Write the structure tokens for this entry.
Amino acid sequence: MCDATGDATQKQSRANKKLDKHLHIVSLDVPYPVDYGGVYDLFYKLPALQAQGVKIHLHCFENSRGRQPELDKYCEEVFYYKRRRGCRNFLYKLPYIITSRISGPLLQNLMKDDFPILMEGIHCTYPLLDKRFAQRKKFVRIHNVEQQYYKQLFRHSKNPFQKIYYRRESRLLMLYEKSVAGNATACWAVTKKDVDFYRNQLHGSTINYLPLFLPPWEVQCREGTGSFCLYHGNLSVAENEYAAIWLLKNVFAAIEIPFVIAGKKPSKRLRKIVKHYANASLVADPVGNEMQDMIAKAQINILPSFSSTGIKLKLINALYNGRHCLVNDEMLAGTELQPHCHLADSAGGFIEKIKQLFSQLITKQEMEARRKSLYSTFNNETGAGQIIKWIWKEG
């Protein structure tokens, strides 16, 4: 009798497990703390999926961020893996962002069951090349067209060794991304522009658009006008440093309006250049809510981009939490955010718009239009529901 009861319990447990929605998520970085643009989508996807009953098995590659107990709140289990850094990774005919994330323990953990696998970024897609996963459901979150992103990093970098690396990586990614489009069960891009690229250039027939997952922001704007213009971003990224220096030399050198540059890990070169401009200042490595406070206080968030891949979280952040946003065409590429931004595509155009907007109040009508657009586009509950439909064919 006891044996029969035990067997029945085990069968019921197995049946319940089959009914549960278990999902492996392989993350290119530890997605907490949420302190740079690339991890917003990684992190806020977790509570959104958990709220709809998905049991998450999270696998993270560490980039000196350490183990984060906060992640345990949203996951059944969390695994951490060291990246394989060093020159030996350049011996492979694969991109470094892939080879540095080849992990035997990760592959072993993924093979313990047959749950679907969501790979966050091209960086984590080595399992697509492993025949042992041929029959598994495998999904890829496309954050950028990486071959284009690295090509643009090559253009903007001043470091000769970085330029060699970026050029090599871009060339290898041209071939690799095509294999991803063919081997994944499906891919989900953050912009419609990237969807079009995968479909038309890489012949990826199973790619769809999935908007970013965001914090529970509300579109809001402080009363009155601000007293400075702001450029913000991860300043260790070559493209962002290039944009900051371009604004200094080509725009704010010609006007006396105060200009603040804020972000992580500014280089010695940028620190030195800023000192030559009396109306400019640099806030290095802002902590806590300091960055959000600057975004809210600025009269104009000025965000030119010299890369048209992916979507820039800093723009969405400024639209939710700031006053005027002044951008160029490349910043808006692949988005539908143009109605909520002011546009300039030359140094003279930026100067003219800054002079116009610096004393101009933002209207209630503009803010209401932002609310309607952003709330309908970026909805974590809707996004999580769409993932569930795509993976488990529901609805």
Notes: The chain has a mean pLDDT of 91. DSSP finds 15 helices and 13 strands in the chain.
